[in-house]
Amino acid sequence: MTKSGFQGAVLSANVAILALSALAIGKWMGIPTAVAALVGNLLGVLNLLGLAWLVGKLLGTAERGGSSKGVYAAILAFKLAAFVGVMALCIKVFELDILGMLFGFSSLVLALVVGSLYSALTLPAADSDESNDGGPAASAQTGQNATADVRGSRA
Questions:
Q1: What is the DSSP string of 120-141?
Q2: How far apart are CA 113 and CA 42, in angstroms?
């Protein structure tokens, strides 16, 4: 499964769930609460995408043995503080309904579950390489041969 396929499935599920829940919330609790749900969901999606990007950078740096792990960890901590600050700003300054924001933020969790199930059931697995049916040992041997070919071509 590709990263973009999974993200697409989650974001599509999020849009569908958010549309249905915003209509229901608007009918049941009023338009201001539905607007707060939309804002809460938008903030949740931006938070999740930022978290995924930063953790990917942090783990990629750790794999390469880079020295910028601390920088990404500090940015991650700052992102958390900024997210809490933006939520507080929306509630205190813009006076958005707290319950509506929680509905919007919580619908993202449901979208993650639905998107994960959808992508697990429909998208092909990333490691399904039909040309390599020899298991991990064959994969390691193929990797060693490719490394030897590259080294041999430089000489």
A1: HHHSPPTT--TT--SHHHHHHH
A2: 17
Cα–Cα distances (Å) from 94 to 2, 7, 28, 37, 52, in that order, read 38, 30, 22, 13, 28
Q: Centre a 10 Å sphere on the Cβ of residue 97 and count the other Cβ atoms it contains.
A: 22
76, 58 contact by CB (below 8 A): yes
Element (H, E) at 155: none
Residue-wise pLDDT for 91-133, tens only, equals 999 999 999 999 999 999 999 999 999 988 987 766 555 445 5
Domain boundaries, the chain: 3-123
Compute CA 149 distance to the chain's CA centroid, rounded to the nearest angstrom.
Answer: 37
DSSP 67-90: STHHHHHHHHHHHHHHHHHHHHHH
